[in-house]
C-alpha cells in the first residue's frame, strides 16, 4: 500500500529544472508526451515553433516525463515521440498511418561556449554558466542543456513545424495521427484529383530528403 502511494506521488509530481511543481491540471497526451499546463517564471522558448512563450497565469505546456515545453496552441502539433516512453510494438493501423514519418537521425552534440544569451531548444530555459554552458549540434545547430541530452529526440535536421503543417494538410494530427474533422473535406477533394497520391508522396519525400542532406553535410 505504501509503495503504491509513493508511485502515485511520483506520477503527480515532476521537475521543472528550477523547482518542483505539483500537477493540478488536465494531462494532454500527444505522441507519448504527457503535457500539463505550467507557470513559467522566466522567458521560455517553445520547442516546436522556436518562439518565446508569453502570457499570464499558466502560459505553456510541459511534458512531465521529458520536460519539453511548448505553447498551448502548439502541443497538438508535436510530431516527435517522448523519449521517456517504452518502445511498444505499434499496431498495424498505427504503422500504416505513421510509419513513413518515423525518423531516427541522431544529433551530433559537442560542448560549446556561448558568447551571448542562448536558450535551450528542448526545455526552453536559458543556458547558464561562464564556459561550456551547453551542447551544440554541429549538423542542425540545435542548442540544449547537458542535462537535456538524454531527453532530446533523434530528429536532427527535421523542421518539425513545417512537417507538422504538411501532416495537417494530409489530415493528420500529432495527438492521434488520424484524419482531422476539419480536413476531411480537403482530403475528399484531393482524392478526386488524379495526382493526389503523388502530391502527398512528393511533399513527404521533399522534407525528408532535405533533412537527410543537412544531416550528411
UniProtKB/TrEMBL annotation:
Keyword check for Nucleotide-binding: yes
Alphabetized Gene3D superfamilies for the sequence: 3.30.60.20
Alphabetical GO biological process terms: intracellular signal transduction; phospholipase C-activating G protein-coupled receptor signaling pathway; regulation of cell communication; regulation of signaling
GO cellular component: cytosol; membrane
UniProt keywords, alphabetically: ATP-binding, Kinase, Metal-binding, Nucleotide-binding, Phosphoprotein, Repeat, Serine/threonine-protein kinase, Transferase, Zinc, Zinc-finger
Alphabetized SMART domains for the sequence: C1
EC primary class: transferase
InterPro entries referenced in this protein's UniProt entry, alphabetically: C1-like_sf, DAG/PE-bd, PKC_DAG/PE
GO molecular function list: ATP binding; diacylglycerol-dependent serine/threonine kinase activity; zinc ion binding
Protein EC: 2.7.11.13
Protein's UniProt name: protein kinase C
Domain Phorbol-ester/DAG-type stretches: 32-82, 106-156
Family from the record: Belongs to the protein kinase superfamily. AGC Ser/Thr protein kinase family. PKC subfamily.
Catalyzed reactions per annotation: L-seryl-[protein] + ATP = O-phospho-L-seryl-[protein] + ADP + H(+); L-threonyl-[protein] + ATP = O-phospho-L-threonyl-[protein] + ADP + H(+)
